[in-house]
Amino acid sequence: MPPLKIWMDVGAFEPLLEPNRRMHRRLALRGYQVRYREYSG
């Protein structure tokens, strides 16, 4: 089975910005391939 790849994006003004940042860090530290993007909006 190929490794799990995760893609995340979040707007800079969304209420879930900080939780998404934390989740991104946790997943990356556990070795997951995470693409993360913050956009203006």
Could you explain how this protein is built, in words?
By secondary structure, the chain is an alpha+beta fold. It has one domain (5-39). The protein has one helix and two strands; from the N terminus they run βαβ. It has one helix spanning 17-29; strands spanning 5-11, 33-39. Strands 1-2 form a two-stranded parallel ribbon. α1 links the parallel β1 and β2 (33-39). The chain is elongated and about 35 Å long.
Report the strand count. 2
| Low-pLDDT regions | none
Helix content: 25-40%
Give the domain tally: 1
Strand content: 25-35%
User: How many DSSP H or I helices?
Assistant: 1
Largest sheet: 2 strands, parallel
Order of helices and strands: EHE
What does the secondary structure layout of this molecule look like, with pairings?
Blueprint: E1 5-11, H1 17-29, E2 33-39
Parallel strand pairs: 1-2
